[in-house]
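Appendix B. Extra example for self-study. Work through it before the problem class; the solution is given directly after the inputs so you can check yourself.
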Amino acid sequence: MAFALQTEKLCKSFGALTVADNIDFRLEPGSRHALIGPNGAGKTTFVNMLTGVLAPTSGRIFLNEQEVTRSSQAARVSHGLGRTFQITTLFKTLPVLDNVALAVAERTGVARRMWRSASSHKEILEEGRSLLDALGLADDAATPAQDLPYGKQRLLEIAVTLGLRPKVLLLDEPAAGVPSHDSKRILEQLEKLPADIAILIIEHDMDLVFRFAQRITVLVQGQVLVEGTPSEIAADKRVRDVYLGEGHA
Amino acid sequence: MSGYTADTRIRWTESLPWVAALAFFFIFPEYLSLGARVLIFILFALSLDLILGYGGIVTLGHSAFFGLGAYTAGILSAKLGINEPFLQLAAAAGMSALLGLATGAVILRTRALTLLMLTLAITAILLEIANKWSTMTGGADGLSGVQVSPILGLFRFDLYGKTAFLYCLAALFIGWFVIRRIIYSPYGAMLTGIRDNSTRMHAIGAPVYWRLVLIYTVSATMAGIAGALLTQVNQFVGLNVLGLEPSGDILVMLILGGVGRLYGAFVGPVVYIIVQDTLAKQYPEYWYLGIGALLIVVVLFARGGILGLFDQWLSHFKPKSSARASAL
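Solution. Structure tokens for the complete assembly:
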């Protein structure tokens, strides 16, 4: 079986501190997979290794069967890896539509062009508009990203990444800092994402995780504690002890 | 404002610099040499705006390219006897492009203060080379004996600077046209993205470093051409084209006019050189004080430069809906 994303014995140490300890992880094509774990479990480090922000100390990473362990961020994006950020990372002074258009232009190679005006590339703008439409942001196209309400900024974060047409989408706490009624809206949008995209979601909001994910991996102190379906995870004694027990007692 | 949602049509206000330049040519025939210098500094400031205002590369070393261009043109003529003006420009462009590519490839891996210091170091090194290698550069005495053949074999550089002025105006027009195209292109939009948030630019798959190296090289090329023009107009090259001082001057000119708004590069040098010329006549030793005071006022009260102030003023007369589109 081909995996959309796979890691083999992935390790990362900062000096004596091991934050990723032999992580074997597999993401099936089109699956909805969640990565959970207490604070400091190494979730963000794991994502940063997957996306190429951090180099692993040892181990290997595969994207659609191709090894990308040493590839640049840009190369991984062109292999179909898209990510959103835990802390909103947008082009905040630029209009919402430009935020999406820049991503679409990178994917299509238009971004390298130096002569014809950007605004005459109608196909980029059209695709950008349809992405905004899909995420319910069509009315905000001309608003600078920083003037959007926070919940919509989180949606724009997703829209920008979808502009890359990823095969694998890493969502780093898409609902971070969003009030609960807005997090429902985000979940609704996530459920509408194309079924052929494999999604790995890192999230603290357990309601969202258990509703959205088909499989859950629990990371504790840099190690995979257990992996299974939501009901298996909810029933697992170890998970309840180290993780759910604390927050949901 | 560049980008995918920008209106890129040429507005009538954009003809003002050219109308003003031609009017100047006819009204002030005795000031054409000064006028040519202003045009050259506008071209230099435009090249800086491309990387600073759009790419977000903060530099105190842009004079490296200006100076290299100036010395390339000067040495070609004074030492090798090559007086063809376009050949001098092409050689200056080529040398500056090479230096831009070579140094950009090294220093653009760094950011912020480190980058600033490295840019400064490069122009300081070139200044020392020009100072010490006096057999080639004339050292502290400067390089004299520069000659320029008539342009296209027809137009001789005259005593009043008529040819020089129109020649520089033509060069500036071409430079402006190219930079305007780049700014409004997808590449320009991408640069704005890097300036705004380079983390996000990496995450959407842009090879940020290479993109910056390329635009740095383009900018260096234009600065080199501006330097060569100065040599041709002055028929002399002095050490004052290299080092911190000219880098700082051009930065101040751009900040005065307004960074990242294309026409700030036009307004800044005009204001700067007029103030400098006026003050230097009255107070030959203290004119820098006047420039300093002007800079403080602009930075404190007009953060978008003189043009930014003008925009604010205009927006009082406009309906709210179009307030975002800038006039200039």
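Self-check: Chain A has one domain: 5-247. If your reasoning did not lead you there, revisit section 3.
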